[in-house]
Amino acid sequence: xxxxxxxxxxxxxxxxxxxxxxxxxxxxxxxxxxxxxxxxxxxxxxxxxxxxxxxxxxxxxxxxxxxxxxxxxxxxxxxxxxxxxxxxxxxxxxxxxxxxxxxxxxxxxxxxxxxxxxxxxxxxxxxxxxxxxxxxxxxxxxxxxxxxxxxxxxxxxxxxxxxxxxxxxxxxxxxxxxxxxxxxxxxxxxxxxxxxxxxxxxxxxxxxxxxxxxxxxxxxxxxxxxxxxxxxxxxxxxxxxxxxxxxxxxxxxxxxxxxxxxxxxxxxxxxxxxxxxxxxxxxxxxxxxxxxxxxxxxxxxxxxxxxxxxxxxxxxxxxxxxxxxxxxxxxxxxxxxxxxxxxxxxxxxxxxxxxxxxxxxxxxxxxxxxxxxxxxxxxxxxxxxxxxxxxxxxxxxxxxxxxxxxxxxxxxxxxxxxxxxxxxxxxxxxxxxxxxxxxxxxxxxxxxxxxxxxxxxxxxxxxxxxxxxxxxxxxxxxxxxxxxxxxxxxxxxxxxxxxxxxxxx
Length: 505
Ligand code: KIV
Ligand code: ZN
Known about the structure:
Largest sheet: 8 strands, parallel, barrel
Structural class: alpha/beta
Shape: globular
Number of strands: 18
CATH superfamily of the largest domain: Aldolase class I
Bound molecules: 3-methyl-2-oxobutanoic acid, zinc ion
C-alpha cells in the first residue's frame, strides 16, 4: 500500500454542499460536520465562502480556530475584498488555505465577466499574488475549466502557478465533461504547462449528467493528485462528486488506479448519516456505499453464493465502510456510557449536557417502543442537535382527527417562554393540514409549505416517524425536522422547528 500515489481528499460539503437547495447548516451543525470530517481523515476542509455572508464568515473563522488535523480552506473570488475576508476567516487555522477562483471559459468571459482573455490572466495573477501574500497554501480554480479552450486553460494555469498557486483545481462547473475529455484535459495540462510540477492538480466535478465520480476517476488516472468532493455527493444542482464513492473506488480498485487516500473508510457511514441528518437530505436507499440497501442481497442465488463465499457477490465488506453488523442497539436498562459510545460510533459528538438529555428521551422512548435501533438513536440525537431554546415555540399537547366525510380537526397547545396558547380549527385536507393552520394562527406566521416528507426512522409498526418540512417565508426556504412515534406529532414538531428558525433569522 505504501508505494501507492496519495490522492488528497478535499471536502467541500460545508461550501459547495451547503449550496444544495435547503441544505443550509447552522454554526453548531457545521462544527459537528467539520469534526466528523477530521475523524474521517480528509486532507482539506473547504469550510465556506467567507465574503458570502456574516454567517459563512463566522463559521469559517470558528472552524479555523477550533478544528485541528485538516487544512482549513476559505473560498474567494479574484478580488481584494473577497481574499482579505477569506484570510481574516482562515488565519487562525493550524494549516490555512485560500482558494481563489475566476471563470475562464468563452461563455463566462463573454456573458458573465465581459472580460478579454488578457484581462482574465491579469486578474487571476493579481488574485493569486494577493492570497500568496497571506499564506503559502493557495489554490486557484479556473471556473468552468472543462469548457475552456485547452490553449487558454494552459496559459491561465501556468500564470497562476508562476504567481504562487500551489494547487490548480480544474472544475467541471456545469457537469458537462465526459470521462475521456476530462482525462484528456488533465493530460494536456501535464504535457503542456511547463511549471505544472510546482503545483498539485485537483479536480472538482459536478454531477449534472451523473458522471462526477467517473470524471474525477478519469482525472486521477491521468495524474490529478487531489479530488474535490462532498459527503453523500450533495452540492449545487445535481451535486458534486461523492466522497464515499470516489474513496471506495480508489480503495477497491487500487489494483487498477495504483493510488490511495488517507480516509478512514470505517467513518464513511457515520459521516454520511450525520450529514443527512443536519441537512435533512436523506440518502436514497440504493446509493452506492452508504445507501441502506448497498449491501443487501435479495436474490436467493446471491444469498446462497454469499453463504458459501462472500466474495462471490460482495466486492467490499459492509464493516469496512462503517455499517455495523447489528443494528439493534440498546435496551431500556442501558446506561449513559453505553449510550454515549453508540452515539460516538454513529458519528456524533455531544456535550455531557446533551448526552444527559438524549438519555432522558431515550428512556421515555424505551417505555413506548420495544426495540431501539440505531435509526431511533440518530433521530433522538438529531432532535437534540436541532434542540429548542427558551424563546422558541414548543409543543405542549395536540389532538387531531379526520375521517371519511368529516372535516379534519386539530387542537394544539403551544408554549413560548412562560406563555401558553391553545387554538382549535376544523379545516383543511387532513389532520396535518389542520395542525399546520393552527400553528399559523397561534404564531401569527404565514407559512408556505413547499415540500413535506415523512419517513420511518427504523423498522416495525412502532417505529419513530421523521418529518421534514420545507417552508418558504419572505423568499427564504427553511427546513424543519421533527421526530415522534406519531407522524402528526413529528410533523407539528418539524413545522415548529422551521418557525423557530424564521424567528431566529
Ligand atoms: O463548481 C465550481 O466551479 C466551483 C468553483 C468555485 C471551484 O465550485
Ligand atoms: Zn462547484
